[in-house]
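Q: What residues go here?
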């Protein structure tokens, strides 16, 4: 664990970030006061050695910072470049692209999967509608130049609609990711608006809902509130089994039910629990 904390500290120092260290509920916390961010180091054996999600949640709350990220050691080791890139953006060090200088187009399942696997901590997921944000111009000194990024800088994917008990069609916002190391200012709103417009055309004036989930170990969901979503409360933590040698995480419920994992040798795997997720729902008028 000491090496893990040292690696996080070395990462922050390498980014030019001043920080202080402390302990809350037995966990190491690195406080980046100027950025308003706390990094909570979660060892790979934390839960195997009696750690709980309640204690982890208290650590987040008691950090007293505006923002907090739980950095799981297995993610740090096995998804290191992506985790470090995401943290740089959270620290305010990422390059900026303005969504107003981009166009929205439908993209193929293959293009979406390739982008999400490279730029989303959970990779791709099944979806019905996939939209990409493509740069068409660059304006001003606050935005990175056109030659510094690929044309495709953000992707959002959505499920097919499902009729709910309240009579409304509901669509899940499955994934959103921007290019690694890049903050796309207004990207979420631009892609959401494009999806809503498409569903309005398809539904011929019918009102509908868009729902999504925020992963609480990474993000509290403030951007969704800013887009007009309402907070529908927490879903409980999910338990995984993790191979500390390979970094493979498998949802515990899939061990006996998913043919990909039947007969898997779970000896040596350790439990890992996330902090659950927060559900957000947006009511959308069928008319502009």
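A:
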């Amino acid at each position: 664990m000491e090496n893990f904390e040292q690696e996080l500290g070395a990462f922050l120092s390498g980014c030019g970030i001043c920080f202080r260290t402390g302990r809350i509920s037995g966990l190491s916390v690195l406080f980046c006061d100027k950025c308003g961010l706390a990094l909570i180091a979660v060892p790979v054996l934390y839960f195997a050695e009696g750690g709980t999600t309640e204690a982890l949640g208290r650590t987040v709350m008691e950090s007293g910072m505006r923002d907090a990220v739980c950095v799981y050691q297995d993610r740090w080791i096995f998804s290191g470049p992506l985790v470090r890139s995401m943290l740089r953006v959270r620290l305010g060090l990422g390059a900026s692209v303005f969504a107003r200088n981009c166009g929205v187009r439908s993209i193929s399942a293959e293009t979406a999967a390739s982008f999400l696997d490279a730029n989303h901590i959970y990779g791709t997921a099944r979806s019905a509608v996939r939209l990409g944000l493509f740069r068409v111009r660059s304006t001003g000194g606050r935005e990175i130049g056109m030659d510094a990024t690929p044309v495709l800088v953000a992707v959002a994917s959505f499920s097919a609609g499902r009729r709910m008990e309240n009579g409304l069609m509901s669509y899940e916002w499955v994934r959103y990711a921007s290019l690694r190391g890049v903050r796309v200012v207004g990207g979420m709103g631009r892609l959401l608006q494009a999806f809503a417009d498409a569903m309005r055309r398809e539904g011929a004036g019918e009102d509908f809902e868009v729902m999504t989930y925020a992963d609480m170990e990474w993000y509290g969901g403030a951007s969704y509130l800013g887009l007009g979503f309402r907070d529908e409360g927490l879903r409980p933590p999910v338990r995984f089994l993790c191979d500390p040698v390979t970094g493979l995480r498998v949802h515990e419920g899939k061990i006996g039910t998913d043919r990909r994992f039947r007969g898997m040798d779970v000896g040596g795997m350790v439990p890992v629990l996330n902090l659950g997720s927060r559900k957000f729902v947006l009511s959308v008028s069928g008319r502009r």
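A: Context that may help when evaluating the design: The chain is about 25% helix and 35% strand. The first strand starts at residue 20 and ends at 24.
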